[in-house]
Amino acid sequence: MKSIIVYYSYTGNTKKVAQDLKEILTEKGEIDSIELSSIDEAKSFLGQCRRAFFKKRAQIAPVNLDLSKYDLICLGTPVWAFKPAPAMNTYLDKCSGVEGKEIILFTTYGSGRGNEQCLNYMQGILAKKGATNFRRFSVQQGEVNNKESVLSEIKSAIS
């Protein structure tokens, strides 16, 4: 099985979860990983949240947007103001090749109030592009360093 993990991480929380996911998926086959980088990122966390709330997009560094060669596509983002980070919004808009693919969506979040909204938003965009098989998991920022808890969340989503 060939898999890819595409994620954006501002503080390192989502990156840590992506690395744990990669560790598990490596046992199942070949895996690629892309960390999105925003070129026009807001300077403050509050500015980032404001952009996310209004579903703004970001300029991202050039990355692979064609996902057709992957069997499993994993997309991760922090939840900001009930939405994905702007860099992930841009990637979701521009990516292709998701038709009929297995998708794992994952988030890291603080309070959790907007977590489901964020996942639903991401799933909606990908469903319009033809993705049909979704699995999801989330990790609260206070649990990111609890590897057992994170691995449990991941295993529940992928089994």
Q: What percent strand?
A: 15-25%
Radius of gyration, Cα only, in angstroms? 14 Å
Number of individual domains = 1
Quick one: CATH superfamily? Flavodoxin domain
Order of helices and strands: EHEHEEHEHEH
Q: Which structural class best describes the helix and strand composition? A: alpha/beta
Number of discrete helical segments: 5
Mean pLDDT, all residues: 90
Number of extended strands: 6
Percent helix range: 25-40%
CATH topology: Rossmann fold
CATH class: Alpha Beta
The biggest beta sheet reads: 6 strands, mixed
End-to-end gap: 15 Å
Choose one word for the global shape.
Answer: globular
Unreliable stretches (pLDDT < 50, length at least 5) are none
CATH architecture: 3-Layer(aba) Sandwich
Structural commentary:
The protein has a single domain (2-158), classed as Rossmann fold, CATH 3.40.50.360. Helix 1 crosses helix 5. Strands 1, 2, 3, 4, 5 and 6 form a 6-stranded mixed sheet that branches. Helix 1 (13-26) links the parallel strand 1 (2-7) and strand 2. The two termini are 15 Å apart. It has 5 helices and 6 strands, in the order βαβαββαβαβα. The mean pLDDT is 90. It is an alpha/beta fold.
